[in-house]
Amino acid sequence: MLAFIIRRLLGAIPVVVLVALIIFCLLYFAPGDPATIIAGDLATPEEIDRIRVALGLDQPFHVRLGIFLLNLVKGDLGTSIFSNLPVTHLIAQRLEPTFSLGVLTVLLSVVVAVPLGALAAWRARRAVDRLALVVSVLGFSVPVFVVGYLLIWVFAIKLAWFPVQGYTPLSHGVGPWLSNLVLPTLSLGMVYIALITRITRAGVLEVLSQDYIRTARAKGMGDRVIIWRHALRNAAVPIATVVGIGVALLLGGVVVTETVFAIPGVGRLLVDAILRRDYPIIQGVILLLAGIYIIVNLCVDISYAIFDPRIRY
Amino acid sequence: MEQTVLSVRNLTTSFARDGLWQPVVRNLSFDIRPRETLAIVGESGSGKSVTALSIMRLLPPTNSRIAGSINLMGRDLLRLPDEEMRRVRGNEVAMIFQEPMTSLNPVLPVGFQIVEALMLHRGLTRVEAEAETVRLFDKVRIPAAKSRLGEYPHRFSGGMRQRVMIAMALACKPKLLIADEPTTALDVTIQAQTLELIKTLQAEEGMSVLFITHDMGVVAEIADRMLVMYHGDVVETGETAEVFRNPCKPYTRALLSAVPQLGSMTGRERPMRFPVVDIKTGEADTPVETPDTIAQADRPVLEVRGLTTRFDIRSGILRKPAGCVHAVENVSFSVQPGETLSLVGESGCGKSTTGRSILRLIEPRAGTILVEGTNILSSSARALSEARKKMQMIFQDPFASLNPRIKVGNAIAEPFLVNRMGTRAQARDKVADLLVRVGLKPEMASRYPHEFSGGQRQRICIARALAVEPKLIIADEAVSALDVSIKAQVVNLMLDLQASLGLAYLFISHDMAVVERLSHRVAVMYLGEMVEIGPRAAVFGNPQHPYTKRLLSAVPVPDPARRRMARSISNAEIKSPVRRLDYIPPVREYREVSAGHLVQSWGEEWAA
Known about the structure:
The complex is a heterodimer.
Chain A lengths: L1 H28 L4 H6 L5 H11 L5 H13 L13 H36 L4 H15 L2 H15 L15 H35 L2 H8 L4 H9 L4 H25 L5 H11 L2 H29 L6
Helix pairs in contact in A: 1-4, 1-13, 5-6, 5-8, 5-11, 5-13, 6-8, 7-8, 7-11, 8-11, 9-10, 11-12, 11-13, 12-13
Chain B lengths: L5 E12 L2 E13 L4 E5 L6 H9 L7 E9 L2 E2 L5 H7 L4 E4 L13 H13 L3 H14 L5 H4 L9 H13 L5 E5 L7 H18 L2 E6 L2 H7 L2 E6 L2 E7 H6 L4 H9 L43 E14 L4 E16 L4 E5 L6 H8 L7 E6 L2 E2 L5 H10 E4 L13 H11 L5 H14 L16 H13 L5 E5 L7 H18 L2 E6 L2 H7 L2 E6 L2 E7 H6 L4 H9 L23 E3 L9 E5 L2 E4 L8
Parallel strand pairs in B: 3-8, 3-9, 6-7, 7-8, 13-18, 13-19, 16-17, 17-18
Antiparallel strand pairs in B: 1-2, 1-4, 4-5, 9-10, 11-12, 11-14, 12-21, 14-15, 19-20, 20-23, 22-23
């Protein structure tokens, strides 16, 4: 197992390098010149040139690429063109809200969807199953921002149970932190609840027709034990796969949710950076997302081995 | 007289099909007395497994309906509330299933799967239940019981898994054990061990056993009384010895005479058709020996020399090979046109890998494979596809080896068209001709595989193999999954085709009785090596190698009078051909016993 993790981490290095290379090229060839933007509308061509030299933008492609990669190895993602602060610092500031939102959403989705899906499979084609289907269809079809504004209108404005927008750091206490995150988590989580419920239902339904489930019933095991102990773990591998994909897709959803609920997270940072053509920040955030995705994938693969003892790496 | 343990009266089980209730078991009545073994015998679709599941009430309640009464020690199981029925299952009535490979939960340790039953029914604590499980493992002769408790099912062989299932069934000392084809999926030597074990444990525990099987050999071996079923109806019931000696009903006679019997070919040289019995009258025809089909003077259609196939086992950070499966090790033989050579042996002996290596479906490591004189291991892709036309393969599972979404006519025509052997119109004629040859009708070409029975599908697979006019057919367990009567028909078809087309067969099988019937020569494989090869009459009549002897003696004899009493149970598992990297296969010598009968000289390990 340890050998597998090491091998996978080593295997991730070329992936990261490739991602870095692609991002660099993308921004290198992208239209628009950061120097012009920094200099402002009234700048003379000389001023723009000076800024360009200062930023190293006058260097040829390979030199700029070399500097970029070298800095990357040192953990230096460059300096924001707009605010002049290090990119690593800017991202670090924004990590907590995004992580809080992401982790809470995944937790909520799994905690709600897996039991719901298992229940739907157990009571297939009965009322509970149909209800789960309705929930899923709603989750799939209503966009995140619609759910978000609806939740704000009902729970924040009408009932005033939760704040409308904003974010309170965890250091200010779990209560305030959580109350700010309930609505964003719910609206972001709807689609994952829908997805994971369907996958769990399909997986458990398939497992329930297996020979070893018949064996368990022949032993006199009750339905609850059969679902939770015998069936669910066998259905876990596809569920873990979907949760992993979900985390990747979630990163996209975070951008919208953070905008709707005015949460100062990485998603907002990225949106702002794109609007300002703040290239180092864009590079940094995309690299961060790629890194997260690689780690999530690794975790999913490790979870396979935990759920299914037949899988050995 | 003691009270009966189980008394079934007028059991009728129906399934809902297309909105109608169709009975699959009709008016079944029988009794099982204490310590008695009753065997229910029948072919697929006879309703024997449904009977077992009805007793356990394990059929899905939404689309099945059970009527009649099932009395267990005075209680009608069909009238019990669900909760109480749960306490009967696994506690008073326990069940073992056919497929040991899929009947255990793959993600739970084997010990735990027994522990949970003990905790549920006998109210033991975790620690007590674990101690009891160790005792049960010892009882079913699982070696090193204590250390294997925490292991997962995939670490156990098929025979060992079936022992785990038996231990699980015995856990709560049930009054009745229902065994649904418990040995069908096992190798013969393992089957013999398992039957022996069930018999011994039955005597020790004083259980009654309801044994469900299609195998007359197994019935003769284990049952006190038997009940023959056909299409949901009882055909005949009685004492096992009596039914075997004097079957009253035509169907029973047909079933009994279709059973391949080892030793029935003594004194004959050539293969022989199975007798064909009319199910209505029970009259059998007298089969004759097949004509001499072997072209001895011709060049062999297939010559294999020194064939070696190995698979690496990799592990560690750099995936270095850590061991090696010696699946096929230095195997040599040849097949003449019109000849049948059988490769026999148990799971893992390399017989299927040999077949696949010859077609290069698996790439061999070394050796030469001459197909009508051309070495296909060193030939170009073009020459290989030319050679593959001369050799075709049929597989074990006729359900899995036909694409369910392709009409059978197109499936048969495909190899013909892919090899550009003619136009579409010619292919159509060819398909019609082939379907007739394999005993089907030309108009069946436009149907899909699911509309055919298992035997018919295997005929379709044979027709597909014949489409490219091969010289040799490699049949990998081609009749193993079929019912006895169907098996006899397909073997007869293969013999007829051999006579009319001069086909050669490489027949890969673990079924010694069928092999005896249709082979000219037999090769016995063990752990990837060939231990004995020779004319069928010589190998079966005068087996030399200890492994051949063991294999032959393990085959159940369908004759209750010749029941082999209480052999000592050997717990020998089939050894594994996984070797260390530095393993150098020993140089083997072969001794010629009689003309063409070669035996590998064996070493110390067979001394006992």
